[in-house]
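Consider this pair:
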Amino acid sequence: MGNTHARNPTEPPHASELSAYEAACQADADLRSFDSNLRAQTSHAIEALAAGIGVRALSFDSLREVTGCLMEMNQDVVRVILDCKQDIWRTQELFELVEEYFENSLRTLDLLSTLDKCLKNARDRQLLVIIALQQFEREDCKAGGADKYARTLEELRNFKAAGDPFTEEFFRIFQAVYRNQVTMLEKLQLRKSRLDRKLKSIHAWRKVSSMIFAATFTAILICSVVAAAAAAPPLAAALAAAASAPVGSVGKWIDSLLKNYENAVKGQKDTVVSMQVAAGLVISDLENIRVLVDRLEIEIQSMLQNAEFAVEEGEVKMGVEQIKKKLSAFMANIDKLGLQADNCSRDIRRARTVVLQRIIKNPNQ
């Protein structure tokens, strides 16, 4: 089966590449400026050759003009490459971010384990309050003297002695994990901004590609003129034959590099965005957890104060009534906090899986 993309024999060599170069010039002002300068340099070089040919010999000055023109063309290309230089294959920073992300996610899961212990302690205190209220209902119906509410007061003392279910260690770990997650999100946002700039630089690299094509094509053209002017047909023929392969292949090679570059950067960005979304979600979960913990802290401190009032002041009925009012909200917030902790744990595990899938999918990892 024949090649449907074979070049038309009547079509000039590299017609498609030249057409693409012209389109690129129309779309980019910097490339138009480069092309204008290139045309002026080429014309100047050929005029210098023409002056040398007028005396039927190539003068040293005309050759110097030609070589100087080629050097200027190459220097223009080098200048643009240096301006656009990006170390696109280096991913060490990304690896470090990924490692830090997974380490932070493990620390957050450890925090949730600590929170689970605190919730267990809170449910134990909830049970102590329920027992105290049950004892109060029994004792309140009976006649008695000063020790009428003895069992109720005993249970309230047990509740008071149990204290706050949320330990200092929990708050210390919570603050450290939250700070790490916020710092992680900032690093990911910075990395994403850098990757966005790299993606924009692909346009500049395409400009470089066009410049290399134009400079190479023009250099071969001038060398062909030099060879013809020096009356060396074999050399001119050799240059013409060589010109049929390198320029097009250089263009394809650069296009291939650009495609690999784009894929590499997009793969990195996908991974960073996945971690960024996950970090933002975990921060939101942690903020919700903190709000619920604060509510529980307020509720349990209030119940502890009421228990102390009942025990120390002997105002059992008033203290129990106040505790009874707060118990329902306390129990509801324990359940909400447990659900929020489960959601956070699930979000973390799901996000870890997504990030790993992104890394596996990225061919440049």
